Every structure is written in structure tokens, then in C-alpha cells.
Amino acid sequence: MNKKIFIILIFCIFFFWIPFHNQISFSKYIFNDSFTATKIQIQKKPTIEILGISNTNTGYEKYANVSHVVSFRVKITEKNVAINQFNRDHIQIFINDTLTHPSIHMFLLSNDSGELIYDVMLSKLSGNGNLSIVFPEGIIEDSFGQKNDVQKFDTGISIDNISPTSTCKELSIENNKSQYIIQSNENLRPINGWDFYNTNSSLSKVFSSPISYPITITDYAGNTAEVFVNIQHAKNIMLYYATHNSGYPVNEFNHSGEISGKQAIIDSSSKKSERIITYLDGDIDNHILQGRVFDYTYWGENTSAICKSSEIKYTYGYSPSPTTWFDISSQNAIHFLGKFTLQLGGYGHNTAGNTCLNQTNPIPQEIAKQNLYGLSGIAFQLKNCEEYSIVYQIYVPSVGWLRASSDGEETTYSHDKPFSAIRINIVPKSEKQHLLNYWNRVIYTDYVG
Fold this sequence. Notes:
The chain is built from four helices and 32 strands. It is mainly beta. The longest helix has 15 residues, at 3-17.
């Protein structure tokens, strides 16, 4: 090996061996350098988010109108809030693209660990369209000068303050029944006793009898409209009746809520209803119709008289009693105007010279002229009938129409104040309250239709 190469090799071995031998440094100075990594904390902007939305329109939470309250819970995330302008003056409420100004109530629920939780309630929401909420930029600012970004939240709630509109039609169907259809311009809530017809914007019901009354339809937002149900062609079940007022001859039956005794109201007559004649016809058992009256007579308690036309006995007080009923199979059944009917009361209450059964105490002429006597209370029911109700209302001179009654309830002003007109109708049980409400609109008036 060349001497020169050998010397270089020895030098290299020695040079690399020195730093590792007993960690002994042969340098004059020892430098100990250390490097510290700087911890950099990145501050995020304040954020605002909606945690949940609720609506007092129970069952239809995706819809609201001016009567409802829409509430939402908001979380603001920021540990170092320097400026907080989250208040009713800075949040913005839009319906579609229109800025609106509902009533706003806000409550701070918590302020903990860099989170602020608010409950916000919106009421008196006017207008129509989709409800959205905007939190403008800069309503929350931290100590580093960072501000929240503008944020818009779609609530998914439709604000609707327009009442539904509708058209109606009656369709004649089998068995002399009618199907009534209400077609609206928007989806409707269900109505008890009615079915949806093809879509949720159309309602229908089958009727067996003529009837007229208003019904209220309601859209999803809770807006309402009154629709008048008017069944004219259904003849599957018919109720006929007539009142006999002294001086007003009976030539025909009324039906389906028509006023019997109407002319007495028009004439402001004092003449009273002395008897009612009624019967059922069609696809129903005529025997289920039952009635009783309170018969107010000149002769007083524990007396009876004979009807001048039918020769049926009528008795002062409840006939037959406060707890029993007459029906068409009783002794009060008669043929009248060619029909087999039930008679309640009797003609002759105010006929001068008429006497009770013992042939005494004839009615004086001056008393007869005053027309003080007749039927003063009445009740009807449909025995063992689950599908239909019977509704009736009486008119008392100088008082007006009384509150309508139904299904066995007695209607009377007082037992010494006979009535002069009546109207009666058979109605599906689901519609009974609608008809009662409608007839009760004319209480204490002289309504004649």
C-alpha cells in the first residue's frame, strides 16, 4: 500500500472515532443549542346555528298563520365575545323575499363554556310564503375583532294567512241518496263524518235526506271558511210534519227543516200550535220515531179533552208522561192527508164552548180569543238509531225561536207559554252539531227563512 494512502486512511479513522469515544470533547468550547416550537392558536370566527324549530300549529307544524307562534333555539359558539348584538333589532325575518316585522321575544337560556343558548319566539306572522331567518354579519364579534358571517336559515314552515276557497256540488247516487262534494283550492284538514275525495283538497259525504246548514272548512295553516251544505235531491229517508194552529188549516206536510206555522210568525199571530202530525217515509222504520209533548189546556191538571177532528184524547201535562213516548203504533196514530201518521196533542184547545171530557167548564169566548192554550213543550227521539239524530226547534210568540234541541231533550220556554211554529229535521249524527249551531243563530228572533 502506498504510504501516502495509508496515512490518509489512518487520519480518517481517527477523525470519525473521536466524537464517540467516551463522549469526550477535545474542542475548546461546548455549544448546547435547543429549539422551542412556537404554539400557534388559530381563533375561529363566532358561529350561529339553529338547534331546533317548533310551531304551536299542532299536527301541522310545517304551516302557520298570524295566530301561531314559531319558536327556535339558537346556539352561539364563541369564548371571547366582545360585542353581542344578538337581539330583536338585528335578526331579520323573511317571508319569501320580503322582510317582515313580526313580534319577537328572546330569552337567554344559558351562557356557559363559550356557548350562548337563546330561545326566540315569533308571533303575529303576517304575509304569505316560506319563513326564513337571517343573522346578519357582525352581530357577534370576538376580542380579536373577528365577526360572524351572514347566515340564512330556511325554517321549512309555510306562512299562510289566506282562507281557502271552494266550490260545491250535489251528485245524485243510488237509492235516492246524494253525494255532496266540497272542492277547495288547497289541502284541508279532516272533518268528522266526511271523507277525502281523491285528494286532500276535496271532501265528500253521502246524505239520505234533504238538509241545509253551513260547515267550516280549515286549511293546514288553520285558516277557515264557511261552506253552505245544501242537499235538495236526497229522498232515501224523509221526515214529514205539520202543525195545526186554530185558524190556519193544514193542507200539506212540511219536511227537512222547513218551518211549519210560518204564516203565524209572518202575521205576528197569537194563535198556538194545538197538535203536531208527523211520520217517516223511505228506507227507515216508521216506528222508530217517538214523541211526547206538554199539553197546556184551559181545564188544568188531571183533565182531558177530545180532538175535534181526530177524536183522539189529549190531556193536560205530559202526554203520554214525562218518561214514556208515543209512536205510530200507539193509540195516537191517525190517517191524515192520505198518510198514516202520529198525532201529538189535539185540535180544540182554543175553541169557544169546547169542554173537557166530563162535558163541563166550556171555554169562554173571551178566553178563546186570546189563544192562550196549546202545546208548550215537545221532545222527539229515534229509538235504537245509531246513525241519525233528530233536531227540532220551536217558536214562541213574543219570545222568538228557542234554542234548538235534539234526541229526546225537551224544548220549552215555560209550560204556560205554548208555541206557534216548529221545524224538525233528521240529520246524520256527525252533522247534528252543525245544524244545531245554525238554527241557534236565530234564537229570540222572528226568523221565517
